[in-house]
Write a structure and sequence with these properties.
single chain, alpha+beta, six-stranded antiparallel β-sheet, 5 helices, elongated
Length: about 170
């Protein structure tokens, strides 16, 4: 098991949405909109953050990150969740942010979305763009629409995502 997997277990157990790793600080989780230190873990050195990051990517991904200082990908931990990952560099050294992607897609009704969004699943053809700021629910909304489409029809659906988040 990768060292970081323990932090992912902690994130899910404590109902967090994001895990933040930054050199010089303890790991933090975002819980109900607020960042909270994981008190049981000491502040991380740049080397420790880099080692945790390196452990979960391929050689090619690590090479890309080392060259550009940025990497986006998805990481799955069986029995826990999938995570949208972003590696970056800060003045303190390597850093990473992981967003927990729920295992179950919420329905349009559970999300309390307007009926007009449900109607998108009934379109015969076209292009649907879902836009908005970080954390506004774009991926969750699109997943609910696709789930509705999948439950009602046998159609070919193409999404353009990087990384792929929800798996239908």
């Amino acid at each position: 098991m990768a060292e970081i997997d323990k932090l992912f277990h902690h994130l899910k157990k404590n109902e967090g949405s994001d895990l933040h790793l930054v050199a010089g600080l303890p790991p933090r989780i975002r819980r109900f909109g607020s960042l909270q230190d994981i008190d049981s873990v000491a502040p991380l050195t740049a080397e420790a953050v880099g080692a945790m990051m390196r452990e979960i990517v391929s050689d090619g991904q690590w090479k890309d990150y080392s060259r550009s200082g940025d990497l986006d990908f998805a990481y799955g931990l069986k029995g826990v969740a999938r995570f949208r990952a972003n590696f970056l560099r800060q003045h303190r050294g390597p850093a990473a942010v992981f967003r927990l992607i729920p295992e179950r897609v919420k329905s349009i009704e559970e999300l309390d979305l307007p009926p007009a969004l449900s109607n998108l699943a009934d379109l015969d053809r076209g292009l649907v763009l879902v836009t908005g700021p970080t954390g506004s629910g774009k991926s969750t909304t699109l997943a609910a629409i696709i789930d509705r489409l999948n439950s009602k029809y046998a159609k070919h659906i193409i999404t353009i995502e990087n990384p792929v988040e929800f798996v239908h």
